[in-house]
Write a structure and sequence with these properties.
Blueprint: E1 5-8, H1 20-27, H2 39-49, H3 55-66, H4 72-80, H5 87-97, E2 102-106, H6 110-119, E3 129-131, H7 132-135, H8 142-152, E4 159-163, H9 166-174, E5 178-181, H10 187-196
Parallel strand pairs: 1-2, 1-4, 2-3, 4-5
Length: about 200
């Protein structure tokens, strides 16, 4: 098997995130401060990221549920600012882009997608994306992997799929991908795995 293409998850792969940063900023502006989002807020987030709630309805429902006293703009600014860069992965993606087509497959919302695509130059290396809020389905459902195969025109048996979550890696593997679980704290292990697959252009 020779690798022909790559599909990357985003959160905690290309850009690590800490949603507690958003929770702290939002909670400080709520009538009743909290340290964890209530289950109802998680449900709203899943509906939003699966495309079953659009942005205006999500914001209206979330702000009402949390009894948020700030503006919608303040809420969005807190919700989106949860990411940080992963320099080793950024450098690796730049090297891979010279030899392989790269694509994105992520459970995400338009708030986050608009933010990270504008803020982080690494996303310019990718030739296409499938985002859950636009696809109408989410990982680890098989449907979203099939949509990626069709949209990108890739052979899953020759495509490396990279994700931080075991359930998504299992879903990708079931769909025929060469699936690898990634830990941004153990980046060297990921590079070693790619070397074992015969991936070219890994050295700086």
């Amino acid at each position: 098997m020779s690798v022909a293409s790559f599909i990357f998850d985003i959160g905690n792969v290309i850009i690590p995130f800490d949603f507690n940063r958003a929770i702290r900023r939002i909670a400080a502006e709520c009538v009743d401060p909290f340290t964890q989002l209530p289950p109802e807020a998680h449900n709203l987030t899943c509906l939003y990221e699966s495309g079953r709630l659009k942005r205006p309805e999500f914001l209206e429902k979330a702000m009402a549920l949390l009894r948020y006293r700030g503006t919608e703009g303040d809420f969005v600014a807190a919700w989106e600012d949860i990411f940080e860069e992963n320099p080793p992965m950024n450098r690796l993606i730049g090297r891979l882009r010279a030899r392989y087509p790269l694509y994105l497959l992520s459970n995400t919302s338009d708030i986050h997608a608009n933010y990270f695509e504008a803020k982080y130059p690494v996303f310019s290396h990718f030739s296409g994306s499938v985002y859950s809020h636009l696809a109408g389905c989410m990982k680890p459902e098989r449907m979203i992997f099939e949509k990626a195969i069709e949209k990108f025109g890739v052979d899953p048996a020759r495509t490396v799929y990279v994700d931080d979550l075991a359930a998504n890696v299992a879903g990708a593997s079931a769909a025929g991908f060469v699936a690898i679980q990634y830990d941004h704290n153990r980046h060297a292990d990921f590079v070693a795995r790619l070397k074992a697959l015969g991936v070219q252009g890994l050295e700086e």
